[in-house]
Design a protein that fits this description.
The chain is of the alpha+beta class. Helix content is 30%, strand content 25%. The chain has 11 helices and 20 strands. The radius of gyration is 23 Å and the shape is globular.
């Protein structure tokens, strides 16, 4: 690209929201350029969940079979293990539609799939190693960006009728526009690490909750992707306490992985996720729209960030593509329609996440019992497809109800797997494809 170029829709950020938006805009016939800061997608993503509503979207886009061919795991249920016993928290098999599960796929495979599909559209361009430096303005209107080519350091300008920021919670575009999100306080951060998974381990998702401890384990085939919650801002303090103490803590919390904690060879194997929860009051300015984490950073609770960002992209394309395709300028009123459409599901989910933060904080603040409840010492949680009825009466009321009335397990499954306002591909973006079947979906990674 020359030092000065022009496009109709300029998308900053080649993550799930940016690439899905780029694909949809290109299928509408809109000249679209996506700027991606990195040279490839091979980074240590933690958000590798593709939820049921996004799987349905892929079917509508004609990409269902190609996605089904990717190496992946499937999460059909979420179990929780408390000191009082075991219970199933959510059952994805109660979801409506063809996809009654959450797919666990390395995000780079998902992004490559979308990028390849978009590359077949003549109006789509993906520029890699393109790091946004600043915004361009035409009077008071955002008119594109200035970016640096990270391979040679040269600077370029891309002018656009509309610029859409999909560059994440640390959005450079948002900063350049002078927009500051409203932050909601969170009581915790997350330590991410991996532990080996054995063939006879449980499948799907396992939550381990105990007084003073909260950990989530996600089945990734040959390893567990583990999220251990720590108090906000306590990372350095806890690391100073030493790795042996952390290993011992995990071994006591989840005894059936005690033989594997030595795989954590140093704290380099434990990555910090600084948890944020925030939302812009206004997602747009003249010539500019922000969606996904650039507009609303989500907590990892429920793993819904990708699902929500993709839904933002679909709504954006459906509302704005007709005006952009006709060559017109997208006015403030249309940009406002995107926020009005996507604000309430975002606010609703963030409200649930704030409630969950409160529960987690109370659990972590509780004094750990000196001796584990007998139920915590029983066999692997995955071997208990049904709740252990000898301890069911000691479970908290919501879990007791979900155990007694399994239909209630569909409520959290729907909130997480589909969300409050799923978005569907516009007619002009759809392509014929047979939906992936349960049998055709690879189960190993």
């Amino acid at each position: 690209m020359a030092n000065n170029e022009r496009t109709t829709c300029l998308v900053v950020g080649g993550g799930p929201a940016g690439l899905v938006l780029g694909l949809l805009m290109a299928r509408a016939g809109v000249e679209t350029t996506v700027l991606e800061k990195h040279g490839d997608f091979l980074r240590d993503f933690r958000g590798d969940t593709v939820h049921a509503s996004t799987l349905t979207l892929l079917d509508e886009l004609g990409l269902g079979e190609r996605f089904a061919a990717l190496p992946q795991r499937r999460m059909e249920s979420v179990q929780v293990q408390l000191d009082q016993g075991f219970a199933k928290l959510g059952d994805m098999r109660r979801l409506p539609g063809a996809h009654q599960h959450i797919a666990l796929v390395p995000q780079w495979d998902f992004l490559d799939l979308i990028a390849d599909a978009a590359a077949s559209e003549p109006t789509f361009t993906l520029l890699r190693n393109a790091e946004v430096v600043d915004l361009l303005h035409d009077g008071g209107r955002v008119a594109g960006v200035r970016y640096r080519d990270r391979t040679d350091g040269t600077e370029h300008r891309v002018r656009a009728s509309l610029t859409v920021a999909c560059d994440g919670r640390g959005s450079r575009v948002r900063e350049a526009a002078g927009l500051v999100p409203r932050a909601f306080g969170v009581p915790m951060d997350v330590w991410w690490f991996r532990l080996p998974r054995h063939a006879d381990d449980p499948e799907g998702g396992v939550g381990r909750v105990s007084a003073g401890h909260f950990m989530v384990m996600i089945d990734r085939g040959d390893y567990w992707q583990c999220a251990y919650l720590i108090g906000k801002g306590t990372d350095q303090q806890m690391r100073a306490e030493g790795l042996p103490g952390f290993r011992d803590r995990i071994a006591r919390l989840v005894p059936w992985v005690a033989d594997r904690v030595t795989d954590l060879e140093s704290f380099d194997d434990v990555k910090l996720l600084n948890v944020e929860l925030n939302r812009l009051r206004k997602w747009y300015a003249d010539g500019l729209l922000l969606i996904g984490d650039a507009a609303h950073a989500m907590s990892p609770v429920g793993g819904v960030g990708i699902n929500l960002a993709v839904a933002d992209a679909v709504a954006t394309a459906r509302i704005l593509a007709p005006a952009l395709r006709s060559g017109g300028i997208v006015g403030i009123d249309r940009l406002r329609k995107v926020q009005l459409r996507r604000w309430w599901p975002t606010a609703l989910i963030q409200g649930f996440q704030k409630l969950a933060h409160g529960v987690i904080f109370r659990v972590r603040s509780a004094t750990p019992a000196t001796d584990a409840h007998p139920a915590a010492e029983q066999g692997k949680v995955g071997m208990l497809d049904e709740v252990d009825h000898t301890t069911a009466g000691a479970l908290p009321l919501p879990l007791r109800l979900a155990t007694r009335f399994p239909v209630l397990q569909g409520i959290p499954a729907r909130l997480v797997g589909i969300g409050p306002l799923p978005e569907h591909a516009p007619a002009w973006a759809r392509r014929p494809s047979a939906p992936a079947t349960r049998e055709s979906t690879p189960q190993g990674s």
